[in-house]
Write a structure and sequence with these properties.
Distance between the termini: 64 Å
Strand content: 15-25%
Order of helices and strands: EHEEEHHHHHEHEEHEEEEHHEEEEEEEEE
Number of domains: 2
Number of strands: 20
Helix content: 10-25%
Oligomer: single chain
């Protein structure tokens, strides 16, 4: 069924041929994972399950990581439809200014299709050489290839970046800007930021922020072969190629990572998907007319798909089912009450305020002050950009807008508790992404009284590690 509305329609699972009891079992399984931030299920274009793990919010755009790649692919398809590029043409054609930077003759043979299918000839991702350089296009085009282009699948976010750079080259605007009137606005999506390279080009392979419902709309659009509200937003012929197997990735070990790769889309054991690090998903199941959006912070992405395949697919019925109000109400209550755990420990104790000085560090953090309030505590860091504060609640999550590096500030929640008579522990979660931290503060005479451990960091760390004086 087509969905033609900018706001997705809600209904009961039974109306769509899904037992509420089956979704209750699925959601309970997801709830046990560390951590499913949000989940939205559509069938026949209508939402029948939506859940956010508090304090994650439906209105806050979430970091998509590599799910961004599929939007870049859509931009390529649109640009080809408009005659601005051809995916069978060679990459170097679009960057004649870098002719002299190419040192490997095989790089001159790389096509846009090779980039789309992750078969550029690299056997490792060249983004590892990006971070300390300002011109990523030059870094990519001057890199050495280990295989013939078009012959070997290697996951390559640098290839996705180059596709975004091509879009910038042929349209004079970034992917996000290019997609605004063509894709985002017709779907009623107001996208968050899309992170840029040092020269202002959207990263392409990562960096886009969208809400869970935005992801769900994108998934539903793909199920409808690019058509929305009687408009063909995406070229159907390009999409058919993009979501089909174009490259062999059978050398991968996980079952849903070895059944084929398209144009920045993964084939799955069931249907196909767009995905990003730590469990960001748009899952499309054409045979069942099901679309699923997930945001998460997990080190095991496969278990999310396993849960969907095992709990949902056997329970899909062609026709509507009798309503089951008791199971439906129980499902709604679980979806409403899911929440992150606060730190376990004593939340009644307080201590004297403390100040620590730091040894010289690359982040330029000079000091940290810990202050106790009636039901919270606050860490205040003195750094190169002034004071940055992180507030943690005792027995609840306190909210902050927090950063410690040159990256942008992120909405952050934190809770605190005493683990023993001299150790205060603070857990923080970035609520627009996947990063979380554990801060341990030792009030004994420890050599390192303030420790920081960052979890689920997929790229450059957002949190530096410090040594106190």
């Amino acid at each position: 069924m087509k969905n033609t509305m900018k706001q997705l329609i809600r209904t009961t699972p039974e109306a769509l041929g899904i037992p509420s009891a089956a979704l209750l079992k699925l959601l309970r399984r997801l709830e046990k994972m560390e951590y499913i931030n949000s989940f939205m299920l559509l069938r026949h274009g209508k939402v029948c399950l939506e859940a956010w793990l508090k304090p994650y919010k439906a209105t806050v755009p979430h970091q998509l990581f590599s799910l961004s790649k599929s939007f870049t692919s859509c931009a390529v398809g649109l640009a080809q439809q408009e005659g601005l590029l051809n995916i069978h043409e060679r990459l170097i054609k679009y960057f004649p200014q870098y002719e002299n930077a190419v040192t490997d003759s095989r790089m001159r043979q790389v096509t846009l299709q090779d980039l789309l299918t992750m078969r550029s000839g690299h056997l490792s991702c060249p983004t590892q050489y990006f971070w300390d350089q300002t011109d990523w296009r030059k870094v990519f085009l001057s890199s050495k290839l280990e295989a013939e282009p078009g012959t070997h699948f290697t996951y390559n976010s640098g290839a996705s970046y180059m596709l975004a750079a091509v879009i910038k080259q042929v349209t004079s605007c970034n992917v996000r800007e290019y997609l605004m009137p063509r894709l985002f606005a017709p779907l009623g999506i107001a996208p968050g930021i899309w992170e840029n390279c040092p020269q202002g080009i959207n990263c392409g392979g990562w960096g886009l922020y969208l809400t869970t419902e935005d992801i769900a709309k994108f998934a539903q659009l793909l199920l409808q072969n690019g058509r929305w509200h009687d408009r063909q937003l995406l070229p159907a012929d390009y999409l058919a190629e993009a979501v089909s197997k174009q490259a062999d990735n059978s050398a991968n070990t996980l079952p849903d990572w070895q059944v084929g790769y398209g144009y920045q889309f993964w084939r799955s054991r069931h249907g196909y998907r767009a995905d990003g690090a730590a469990g960001q998903y748009a899952v499309m199941l054409p045979e069942s007319d099901v679309a699923i959006a997930v945001t998460a912070c997990t080190g095991n992405m496969q278990i999310i798909l396993d849960a969907i395949w095992e709990e949902l697919l056997p329970e899909l019925h062609d026709d509507a089912l009798p309503e089951a109000p008791e199971a439906w109400n129980e499902l709604q209550q679980l979806a409403k009450n899911m929440s992150l755990p606060t730190v376990v420990g004593d939340i009644t104790r307080r201590s004297e305020n403390q100040t620590w000085l730091f040894a010289e560090n690359p982040q330029g953090i000079k000091s940290c002050q810990l202050e106790f309030g009636e039901n919270d505590c606050t860490l205040t860091f003195d750094g190169p950009n002034g004071l940055e504060q992180l507030r943690a609640g005792f027995g609840y999550f306190a909210e902050s807008l927090f950063k410690l590096t040159d990256l942008s500030a992120h909405p952050t929640v934190a809770s605190a508790a005493w683990k023993n008579d001299h150790t205060l522990e603070i857990h923080t979660f970035i609520t627009d992404g996947i990063y979380r931290d554990i801060w341990q503060i030792d009030f004994s005479d420890a050599a390192e009284p303030l420790k920081n451990t960052m979890l689920c960091a997929c790229f450059r760390p957002l949190r530096p590690r410090f040594t106190c004086r």
